[in-house]
Write a structure and sequence with these properties.
Blueprint lengths: L5 H16 L3 H56 L9 H5 L5 H29 L9 H13 L3 H24 L4 H17 L5 H13 L6 H36 L1
Length: 259
């Protein structure tokens, strides 16, 4: 089967964007909360996998294998149709109409998805960080991950967030382009999830939940660190998602139609 053309992917994305913008708040909130659960579970998988590999393979191999393990979080999100805040850049923007109500729905979508991603992720993280729930060694691996993000300089945090925003927004394009192939969607989600953690790129939701794990495990992280990084990550994710992917893909389709 031939790969769909950019304008075909764009039309699919636009239809999905209109659907997302038309949802009631309760559906949106529940979908976003599940996305937070998926990320929190993925971080736990990272910790469990890295802890199993590190004694014989060392830290670098443990991080690589742990990142591959984290990729399952993005698979759950794509297959289970939950959502992350950063998935709502390209898709709903293509579905916007020119009326004021459409832009208000976009603002509602961003606010509710961001909040409920965090609520869902923090809630499951509280359970997973309770005494004895995760196997020995997982705490150390997750703490290293969280403290790495917490110690970014503001500039590094922002630039890393630009990459993260671009990665996840690009994933939404790939997912819509492979609408007929669940295998391709799963593969792309797993690859993007693994790359995100392998590079420790600063994704607003993933980074915040990582740092919440760090708080729960008694790491050298404070709430001020978490919220400061969250603000920087949101700004960087917006720049990466909107400028590097959404506007470029829109221009690609516009150019294709004119040509």
């Amino acid at each position: 089967m031939a790969a769909p053309q950019p304008e075909q992917i764009y039309e699919r994305t636009r239809e999905e964007g209109k659907r997302r913008l038309s949802r009631p708040v309760l559906e949106l909130a529940a979908t976003a909360a599940v996305g937070g659960f998926d990320v929190a579970l993925g971080i736990a998988v990272y910790g469990l996998t890295a802890a199993a590999v590190e004694p014989k393979g060392g830290e670098e191999l443990a991080h690589l294998v742990g990142a591959i393990g984290f990729g399952i979080a993005l698979v759950f999100i794509v297959v289970g149709r939950s959502e992350l805040f950063t998935e709502n850049f390209l898709v709903p923007i293509t579905g916007l109409d020119r009326d004021r109500g459409s832009f208000l729905k976009l603002g509602e979508l961003w606010a509710v998805s961001l909040l409920m991603n965090l609520v869902g992720g923090f809630a499951l993280a509280i359970v997973l960080t309770s005494e004895g729930v995760l196997r020995h060694g997982s705490k150390h691996a997750i703490l290293q991950l969280a403290e790495h993000t917490a110690h970014y300089t503001p500039l590094t945090a922002f630039l890393s967030a630009v990459v993260a925003g671009g990665l996840i927004t690009a994933l939404t394009w790939f997912v819509e382009g492979a609408a007929e192939s669940m295998g391709v969607r799963i593969t792309m989600a797993w690859i993007v999830g693994a790359v995100l953690l392998l590079g420790s790129f600063n994704h607003a939701i993933v980074g915040a939940i990582e740092m919440f794990y760090g708080l729960r495990f008694g790491g050298a992280i404070g709430w001020d660190d978490l919220f400061a990084n969250l603000g920087i990550a949101i700004a960087g994710n917006l720049v990466g998602g909107l400028l590097l992917v959404t506007f470029v893909r829109s221009a690609q389709v516009l150019g294709s139609k004119r040509g």
